[in-house]
Amino acid sequence: MATKIKVVEPAVKEKSGRILKDTPAYSHEEIEKKAGRKKNQDKRGFLLSTGEFAGREKAAKIAKVAGEVKKPGKKLHSHELREALKIKKASK
Questions:
Q1: Does 63 fall in a domain?
Q2: How confident is the model at residue 85 (pLDDT cuts 50, 70, 90)?
Q3: What is the C-alpha separation between 20 and 31, in angstroms, rounded?
Q4: N or C: which end of the chain has fewer CB within 10 A?
Q5: Helix/strand/coil for 4
Q6: Number of domains the chain is built from
Q7: Distance (Å, rounded) from C-alpha 50 to C-alpha 30?
Q8: Domain range spanning residue 29?
């Protein structure tokens, strides 16, 4: 039986290909700010259980199939994943 792929945590992918991440409690904005990156400078997405980076659209589909998020929109948002995983937002 194949293991379902799951969405693990928010991440930001720089144009260079480098992946920025911190903890599932952080939003994309918090990851960008902590790394000194400007908003919308890089691609927002999520790391999957396979280690792969997925954009927000692909992550929404995976989270729905995996049963992590009941009704994601077209794009998955970091707060939806936090709610699904019952993780409190990181305090600033």
A1: yes
A2: confident
A3: 7
A4: N
A5: coil
A6: 1
A7: 24
A8: 7-85
Say what the pLDDT of residue 14 is: 94
d(CA 41, CA 24): 21
Task: Provide the mean pLDDT of the chain.
Answer: 90
pTM to 2 decimal places: 0.90
Instruction: Indicate the length of the chain as a whole number.
Output: 92
Residue 46 pLDDT level (bands cut at 50, 70, 90): very high
The torsion of the CA quartet 32, 38, 39, 42, rounded to 10 degrees, works out to: -70
Q: 60 with 73: CB under 8 angstroms?
A: yes
Structure tokens at 26: 């952080």
The answer to whether 24 touches 33, Cβ cutoff 8 Å, is no
Give the residue carrying structure tokens 């930001």. 12
